[in-house]
Amino acid sequence: MQKYVLLGNWTDRARETFLEIPERVKLTKNIIGELKGSIDFFFTMGEYDFVAIIDMPDEESMVKYLFKAYEARYITIKTLRAWTDNEFAEMVTEI
Predict the structure, then answer these.
(1) How far does the chain reach from its first CA to its final CA, in angstroms?
(2) Neighbours of 94 (CB within 10 A)
(3) 6, 42, 87, 95: which has the highest count of C-beta atoms within 10 A?
(4) Domain parsing of the chain, residue ranges
(5) Which Pfam families did the record assign (predicted)?
(6) Would you call 11 helix, strand, or coil by DSSP?
(7) pLDDT 10s per residue in the chain (95 long)?
(8) Nearest Cα to Cα of residue 76 among 18, 20, 14
């Protein structure tokens, strides 16, 4: 599985229907599950409204999710590819 960190903010459209956010989170979890991935959501204070940690089987699955997320126009996100400490150590030792 590949790991991704999403730093996100609600759009004005999402803020107008703020009470629907929990349902959108459930929908997001279902979409990611259908793509054979998993997600942990964290609501935050500060520069970002939420942080999500996503595990996906491959980049193609992640791109499919991102297209669906952007299509809804409820969030803006920065996506970061992440590696565990063990994955990073393995990459470095192969150099």
Answers:
(1) 22
(2) 6
(3) 6
(4) 2-93
(5) GYD
(6) coil
(7) 999 999 999 999 888 988 888 998 999 999 999 999 999 999 999 999 999 999 999 999 999 999 998 888 889 999 999 999 999 999 888 77
(8) 14
